[in-house]
Amino acid sequence: xxxxxxxxxxxxxxxxxxxxxxxxxxxxxxxxxxxxxxxxxxxxxxxxxxxxxxxxxxxxxxxxxxxxxxxxxxxx
Length: 76
Fold this sequence. Notes:
2 domains; 1 helix; alpha+beta; elongated
């Protein structure tokens, strides 16, 4: 995309979207975006849990992910 050009994307309002900007001078609402990544999609069909940087479907999955770096250490 070149400066001064518009880009219209047909985003579904029922979906979740995020605009990631790695670095650079970035503005929105008609101003240039040097680098950008638009991610998103259909919502999960099931409930999800988030804890810190872990995402899972059950508390046990969160616990397993949280403890994984320590398996084999400290008696785990």
